[in-house]
Design a protein that fits this description.
The complex is a heterodimer of chains A (about 450) and B (about 475). Chain A is α/β, with parallel strands linked by helices and about 450 residues long. Chain A has 13 helices and 17 strands. Chain A has helices at about 10-20, 50-60, 80-85, 90-95, 105-120, 135-150, 160-170, 190-195, 220-230, 315, 330-365, 390-400, 430-440, and strands at about 65-70, 125, 155, 180, 185, 190, 200-210, 230-235, 255-260, 275-280, 290-295, 300-305, 370-375, 380-385, 405, 405-410, 420-425. Chain B has about 475 residues and is of the alpha/beta class. Among the domains of chain B are: about 5-60, no CATH class; about 85-340, Aspartate Aminotransferase, domain 2 (3-Layer(aba) Sandwich), CATH 3.40.640. The model of chain B has no long low-confidence stretch (mean pLDDT about 95). The chains are: A alpha/beta (about 450), B alpha/beta (about 475).
Chain lengths: ~450, ~475
């Protein structure tokens, strides 16, 4: 057992101090009939080389595509090696939550910088220290809106990420909240319907920009409708898109939420992720999750602490603003370093490279007989292609030639079986795009 | 160059730290692909810094953290054990780290197998047939567990109204109950800080959907009447949820399913040695009785023959609670740990965790007040009452420990012990380290006797000294302004 330092001799000395003769005496506090008489039904230990071989074999059963156009909230953006070299340092990775601020200045300052980066990217006043994932951030935003407005209707467009909508539905299923789904037309929220459905019983309106299909929506109409009705406006955005797209603040959003995975995190089969949450200053005392603040120590030196902890569960218990204790601090650390490194010029560069290559691919696919880009809406790095055969067949065929083609929208939207969601990032070269186009061109159109 | 500047104060116009291609058609042509009404007016005012300067900035920050690879972390209920490096190596394998979650199941069999096998191992460890690894944190376990209770109660015909929680519970318990739509019915622990079956008999009624119990409890004591409590709750039609924050004490010794629990949660970042990351990401799991299987969150990893797949077709499911399947990267680490230890190793963990805690308790109890003088499990709670009378409080003792390179224990929790000092050494500390901790605690007590004011001014040797939290709340500087 490499992780247990005490030898038998140490143990014996310690048992003597405690005044018992064996370790099993320490477990006699457990009723006899509950004590296990046999070992757990768990396989015997593997040595470290055997263990790594076993894990390597398991990992090898996952067949990664060399070229990937799969997005839908998790993106193949480039992760510079600097990120892991710093983030995997034990000083960050093996530290506890920074409750003892004097010995956690590293983590606390990183969180403070993270909050600032998110505010500058989004234009919002305040960002928290992060949440489980974008879906949780969105759910917490809806709960905040309901508490703030004392209204119970959550209005959300069906063009918002379907996984987020599922998580929200499950998470609030025990609460007295009603979710109203706005219909869409041609991949865009139906704003005429929206204007009819919003009234003064609605706590908030949630819209995506870009939406799940990658398209840009007329958020101003949504903003006006919900604010006229006295509700809060919540926008979901891809943080990379904010390198060039209008910020949530410019849309007068009350709360911004999003998934931060694209900011320097690996895809990790979908977790851990990084929930982003930022809002206007007036909600600061209602915000869920941890918040770092700059202050000074007794000698006047600048330093950082967690602040407004009276909102949180460990102090407020059943009156807390949220039950969430954790933040994804190490993921936030990765994102902080990523944003510091890419900086003022780099984030817009990534956004532009993704835009350019996505539009290149879209134009090429539009030229293939039988394929067409669905509707002519402006888009960022993701778009939908109408396929002559079910999208699922395209995906399966492309996988055979090492290309992950995208997402079959029929999974989430009945009737959309011939629609393929394609994401392009700066990692995808023009050659990658050409290869994909060549594959599609060679397919029989049936 | 050690300084206390934030990255923005070191930023200089024109510096770049990235290496990316340029656009082919030119930036303004790219911008024109998106109508102006959708574009931001000004670029984001993020820092401008070169790679070497950035690396130094963040390395300097890292050096201001206490961490488990450097020193002792006796935080009660947090299980700050060593985080094995092989776990990180496994999680970093490209086949795991670079896998997109919407990869077709035929191309992600390894990941699905790992999730399936991990859930199976966790279920075995706690005596259940089934577990889910979807929760990403302890608090999410609680909410998910409560929603499972809600779903089961609904199926039985009556959702009921409230959940029983002892006054010694973690703060997330009542907060999660509220989010699940139940009311909190808090009850008192006995004078010995235990839950009494007689008391549960009085408070359990037809409106109560269940009870949340931490076992061993937050004082490190095993709830010896648990079987009777389970019977009372079950007879009245309720379900039992076990907060598994303290599962480290039970590994290979006893199983929550045998005690009568219907749900147990695991904190993989505690019991299964995955890193705390400065506050996350962690990961959780729930072990459940067969009655609750239909309600498991979707998707559920299932096995058909030799093939693993994600099952979404579960009409009674409480639904999805994470964007994808949970914190997969953490699951890989927990799986690696369990396979590395095996059945014997897991038992050694609890044995040594409990021995270490009892050794510390015995050596400290003469100097510090021990409210419950009995055999403890993986942790115990002292009171700083005696020291408070001498002029320094528990919070001062905590700060003084930092000067000796030891992280503070959990303090002022559980709420039922005044001036509480909650200590959990874990199995990965040596007797030498425990002795150093004891010597330090005894020395601090002497320091309080001779110069309480000095102790009240601690810490002195940390990167910063006591921070002004009132000022922080007042100025709310949470976003750097140039």
């Amino acid at each position: 057992m490499p992780y247990i330092p005490n030898s038998e001799e140490d143990q014996k000395k310690m048992l003597d101090s405690v005044g018992v003769s064996s370790i099993s005496d320490l477990f006699k506090i457990i009723p006899e009939n509950l004590r296990l008489k046999e070992l757990l039904d768990v396989p015997p230990a593997l040595s470290e080389p055997e263990l790594m071989r076993h894990l390597e074999e398991m990992a090898a059963k996952n067949r990664l595509s060399k070229i990937s156009f799969t997005g839908g909230g998790i993106y193949n953006h480039y992760v510079p090696p600097v990120i892991s070299s710093i983030v995997m340092r034990p000083e960050f990775a093996t530290a506890y939550t920074p409750y003892q601020a004097e010995v956690a200045q590293g983590t606390l300052q990183v969180i403070y910088e993270f909050q600032t980066h998110i505010c500058r990217l989004t234009g919002m006043d305040v960002a928290n220290a992060s949440m489980y994932d974008g879906a949780t951030s969105m759910t917490e935003a809806a709960i905040l809106a309901s508490g703030y407005t004392k209204r119970n209707k959550i209005v959300i467009s069906d063009t918002v990420n379907p996984h987020y909508r599922e998580v929200m539905r499950s998470t609030i299923s025990g609460l007295d909240l009603e979710i109203i789904i706005l219909p869409s037309k041609n991949g865009q929220t139906d704003f005429n319907e929206l204007e009819k459905m919003i009234d003064d019983s609605c706590a908030c309106l949630i819209l995506g920009q870009p939406n799940y299909f990658g398209y840009l929506e007329d958020l101003e109409r949504g903003e006006k409708a919900i604010h006229d009705a006295g509700g809060l406006f919540i926008t979901v955005a891809d943080p990379i898109s904010l390198g060039i797209l209008k910020t949530p603040a410019e849309y007068n959003a009350d709360i911004f939420v999003g998934e931060g995975q694209g900011l320097g995190l690996s895809q990790n089969f979908g977790g851990p992720l990084l929930g982003l949450f930022a809002c206007k200053k007036k909600f600061i005392r209602k915000i869920p999750g941890r918040l770092a603040a700059r202050t000074t120590d007794v000698d006047g030196k600048p330093g950082f602490v967690l602040t407004l902890q009276t909102r949180e569960q460990h102090i407020r218990r059943d009156k807390a603003t949220s039950n969430i204790c954790t933040n994804e601090a190490l993921c936030a650390t990765a994102a902080t370093i990523f944003m510091s490194m890419m900086g003022r010029q780099g984030i817009p560069r990534i956004a532009r490279l993704s835009t350019e290559r996505a539009h290149y691919l879209a134009d090429k696919i539009n030229d293939i007989k039988g394929y067409s880009v669905w509707n002519n809406s402006p888009f960022f790095k993701e778009f939908v292609v109408e396929t002559p055969v079910p999208a699922n067949e395209v995906i399966q065929g492309a996988a055979e030639v090492g290309v992950a083609a995208g997402i079959d929208l029929g999974r989430y939207y009945p009737g959309y079986e011939n629609r393929l969601l394609i994401a392009v990032t700066e990692v995808n070269t023009f050659t990658d795009c050409d290869k994909f186009v060549a594959f599609l061109s060679a397919q029989k159109t049936r | 160059m050690s300084d206390f500047k934030v990255v923005y104060e070191k930023s200089r116009p024109g510096r770049t730290g990235f290496s990316l291609p340029v656009t082919k058609i030119g930036d303004s042509a790219v911008d024109n692909l998106i109508p102006e009404q959708f574009r931001r007016k000004e670029e984001p005012l993020l820092p401008e810094q070169s790679e070497p300067e950035l690396v130094r900035h963040y390395i300097e920050l890292s050096l201001r953290n206490h961490h488990i690879d450097r020193g002792f972390y006796p935080l009660g209920s947090c299980t700050m054990k060593y985080n094995p490096k092989v776990n990180d190596a496994a999680a970093g394998l490209p086949g795991f780290a670079n896998l997109h979650p919407l990869t077709g199941s035929e191309n992600c069999q390894g990941a699905l197998e790992l999730m399936y096998e991990l859930a199976d191992l966790l279920a075995r460890i706690t005596g259940f047939n089934r577990a889910t690894v979807q929760p990403v944190a302890g608090a999410q376990c609680e909410l998910m567990g409560l929603l499972l209770i809600r779903a089961a109660m609904k199926k039985r015909g009556n959702v009921r109204k409230k959940i029983l929680i002892p006054d010694s519970a973690h703060g997330t318990n009542p907060a999660s109950v509220i989010l699940s739509g139940y009311q909190v019915a808090q009850f008192k622990s006995t004078e010995n800080s235990m839950i009494s079956a007689d008391h549960i008999r009085e408070v359990m009624d037809e409106d109560t959907a269940g009870i949340m119990i931490t076992n061993p409890n937050t004082l490190g004591l095993f709830e010896s009447e648990i079987e009777e409590i389970a019977k009372i709750v079950h007879d009245a039609g309720g379900l039992l949820y076990m907060d598994g924050a303290n599962l480290n004490a039970l590994l290979g010794q006893a199983r929550p399913a045998d005690m009568g629990f219907d749900i147990v949660h695991y904190n993989l970042h505690k019991t299964m040695s995955t890193p705390h990351g400065g506050g996350g990401p962690g990961a959780g799991a729930l072990g459940i009785t067969d009655e609750l299987i239909p309600f498991l969150p979707t998707p559920v990893v299932e096995k058909r023959g030799d093939e693993y797949y994600l099952d979404y077709d579960r009409p009674d499911s409480i639904g999805r609670m994470h964007s994808f399947y949970g914190n997969f990267g953490i699951m890989v680490r927990a799986y690696t740990y369990i396979r590395h230890l095996g059945a014997v190793g897991l038992k050694r963990v609890s044995e040594n965790a409990v021995l270490n805690a009892n050794y510390l308790k015995e050596r400290l109890k003469g100097t510090y007040e021990l409210p419950n003088d009995r055999i403890c499990q993986h942790e115990f709670v002292l009171s700083g009452n005696l020291q408070k009378k001498k002029g320094a409080r528990t919070s001062d003792i905590a700060k003084r420990l930092l000067d000796y390179g030891i992280h503070a224990p959990t303090i002022y929790f559980p709420l039922i012990i005044p001036e509480a000092i909650m200590i959990e050494p874990t199995e990965t500390e040596s007797k030498d380290m425990l002795d150093y901790f004891v010597d330090t605690m005894l020395k601090i007590d002497e320091e309080i006797s001779s110069d309480a004011e000095m102790v009240k001014g601690a810490p002195y040797t940390t990167p910063v000294r006591r921070l002004d939290e009132v000022k922080a709340t007042k100025t709310l500087d949470v976003n750097y302004q140039d």
